[in-house]
Amino acid sequence: MIDEIAKKIAELKQEFAKTYSGNSHIQELIPISSSIEFPIDSNHLKHLHNFILKNPIYHNSYEQNFGGILTRVYEGDINEYWLNSIKHGSSCQPFYPTWIFSAYATTLLAKNFNFKELIDVGSGDGRIAYCAKFLGLQTISIEIDDALVDLQKTISSATKVGFNPICADAIEFDYSSLKLTHPVFFIGGLPQMGGDILASSIIEKISLSKIKDNAGIVFAGTHSKKQMSSNLGHGGWNSLIDKHGLRVTKTISLPTIWTFDQLVDTPYIYTEFI
Ligand SMILES: C[S@@+](CC[C@H](N)C(=O)[O-])C[C@H]1O[C@@H](n2cnc3c(N)ncnc32)[C@H](O)[C@@H]1O
Question: Average of pLDDT values for 150-171?
Answer without folding.
Answer: 98
